[in-house]
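does this look right to u?? zinc ion version
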Amino acid sequence: MKKGVPTQSAVIDHQNGSQMSYKNKCEKCGTMSSSINTLSVPGPRQMYTNNFPCMKCGNQQRVEIIGE
Ligand SMILES: [Zn+2]
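got this back:
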């Protein structure tokens, strides 16, 4: 079964076969977003990326989720 592993700025909320969801997590201040992002689980060694600014400290950062 495919699996996505966050390497930075994300915490997995739910993972179910080909779909997964995560919350943004600020690497600077640790704030977690309340909204949930859903995506297709990346294939092996594929990387999903997304950018977001922290709602609390404004730190601009990049989410990275790697498929296994
Ligand atoms: Zn922050």
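The chain has one domain: 4-67. idk if thats expected tbh
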